[in-house]
Amino acid sequence: MNSFFCQIPKAELHLHIEGSLEPEMMFVLADRNNIQLPYKSVEEIRAAYNFQNLQSFLDLYYAGMSVLQTEQDFYDLTWAYMQKASAQNVRHAEIFFDPQGHTSRGVSFETVHRGIYRALQEAKQQLDISSYLILCFLRHLSAESAMEALEQALPYKDTIPAVGLDSSEVGNPPSKFQKVFDKAREEGFLTVAHAGEEGPPEYIWEAINLLGVSRIDHGVRCIDDPKLLEYLIEKQIPLTVCPLSNIKLCVFDSMAKHNIKQLLDMGLCVTVNSDDPSYFGGYVAENLQEIESALNLSRQDIYKLVKNSFQATFLSAEEKQTRITELDEFMVK
Ligand SMILES: Nc1ncnc2[nH]cnc12
Ligand SMILES: [Zn+2]
């Protein structure tokens, strides 16, 4: 790893905490909770991470989650990610969690939230990384189930500034969750949604027009709709792009064919993120390094992507500026 990509101050805005579960920890937690894994070794787990599309990944992702049972498990998972983020000079992280993936297995919302949130608070104190939590609804489940998850989150509203939408995209358009997102916005949540990862540009329009999102997660298929491109540029609606994820899930055939440089050059507010780093082979610094070499990015391109990452956060204008100043100081060193 080139140290520049580790050291440049950055924000991460698209990270599923459950997708940061490394195979080593999967074994430790399985042992601790007396769970039998269908793998004999860490190498065997990594060898299974060969995906044809989003669904083939999600099947393993939900199976992997089963080792997360106690508050301590969620704490350990989150603390491990924050240490990794600290080593890559992530200055601010906005982190997704999937409560329905846990409550459906009998783990309470409170257990999940307490473990994750405690680790985030400690990371603020000990590692000086700020963070926000984003509750994601699983779109392959019903709107009623999402509404239930929202109700469960209300007592924790002060610690969860936003809600999002993830899981199997095609066939589960944003419109399915319009009422849930209406209620979430009434309750004061900001909103984001995965859209245009595998699904069509129409889903990006729906996320904007029906769910009122502040950012689009992935969004790379906006390239198929010139009017949408124009709109995203004009409004500077950020896209949280995840290059290694897109290659592992066959959204693009190779990194050389990824459209992030094209989107950046057109003036979209694109950012680089890791999605599910343990499954896709890299955290945010590895994502930056991979696109730099495959797409011949300049230092100015990298600077712009990282600056966008701060601009696209839910931090206040003043907090954004503090971090951008730190970035500017790093660049002239
Ligand atoms: N890349 C992705 N797309 C949709 N849902 C997800 N959940 C975890 N990672 C995801
Ligand atoms: Zn994602």
UniProtKB/TrEMBL annotation:
Claim: Zinc is one of the keywords in the record: yes
Enzyme class: hydrolase
GO cellular component: cytosol
Entry-linked Gene3D superfamilies: Metal-dependent hydrolases (3.20.20.140)
Biological process per Gene Ontology, one example term: hypoxanthine salvage
Coiled coil: none
MF (Gene Ontology): adenine deaminase activity; zinc ion binding
Cofactor note: Binds 1 zinc ion per subunit.
Cytoplasm keyword on record: no
Catalysis performed (reactions): adenine + H2O + H(+) = hypoxanthine + NH4(+)
Residues holding Zn(2+): 14, 16, 194, 275
Marked site (Important for catalytic activity) residue numbers: 218
Enzyme Commission number, as recorded: 3.5.4.2
Cofactors demanded by this protein: Zn(2+)
Any Pfam family: A_deaminase
Family per record: Belongs to the metallo-dependent hydrolases superfamily. Adenosine and AMP deaminases family. Adenine deaminase type 2 subfamily.
Function of the protein: Catalyzes the hydrolytic deamination of adenine to hypoxanthine. Plays an important role in the purine salvage pathway and in nitrogen catabolism.
HAMAP family, A to Z: Adenine_deaminase
NCBIfam families referenced in this protein's UniProt entry, alphabetically: aden_deam (TIGR01430), PRK09358.1-6 (NF006850)
Family annotation (PANTHER family): ADENINE DEAMINASE (PTHR43114:SF6)
Protein name: Adenine deaminase
The encoding gene: add
